[in-house]
Design brief:
Elements lengths: L1 H42 L22 E3 L4 E4 L6 E10 L5 E12 L5 E7 L5 E2 L4 E9 L4 E13 L6 E11 L4 E10 L7 E10 L3 E9 L11 E7 L9 E9 L2
Antiparallel strand pairs: 1-3, 2-3, 3-7, 4-5, 4-6, 4-8, 9-10, 10-13, 11-12, 11-14
Amino acid sequence: ESMLEQSKPLKVAVFVGLITINVIILAVLFGVRLPLLRQATASAPAAKSLPGNTLFMPLVVRFDPVGVADNSSWYIEKDGGDILHIVGEVVNHTTGPVSMVQVQAELLAFRSGESLGKLQGEPFQSVIPAGGKACFNLHVPKPKNYGTYQLSVLSYQPAQEAFNGTVWATNAQYDNRNAWYEINGVFNAATAGQAGDVLVIGTLYELGDLVVGCDQTFVNIPDEEASQPGTFSLIMMDRDFSRVNRYEVQASLLQR
């Protein structure tokens, strides 16, 4: 018993010594790491607040008040002229008519995607009404190594009012013998005294509302009286239009 009693102080001293060593080790570790952690936290940039309408989505859809619809296409003239055409539609999502719409097509190289240049133009319809659309046909000699394109609307201006008139087709069909698409019809001005030449614009679509053709022609108005009905004939022949399943016609005014 005396030996056990003598060993008790020794065990207590060893136990106290172990506790002391652990406290020293923890103090050293936390004394080094905590200041580093504080320093790293202080030097980290603060998170920037985002606008309330900012969303993170796998696919970001950009809405433009006046923009290019996602139904355009391109083709090379079938007569061998090596002329590149890009056809599509501009949509006016604003609450009023717009005019002077500038459409831009950036031409991109095959595979590399390198920019080969930019092509600009306007829709055939000079004034696009609220909620309306207008087709365009941009064309240029086909660049070497051309692969694809990107479309955008560069600018537009509010307009006073859209052209007021009614246009309808009396006959529209693909002519197999001549390999062209022909639209014939009538135009009637809603009011008299509209100075300028009247144009009819035709848009051709394939399945899925893909725009494959866009062109214009003048209206033949008897005696140059704007109040009298006029006729028109529009022929499109620079592409294979045999798969066209529908068309649209619009009237516009070409100011003198």
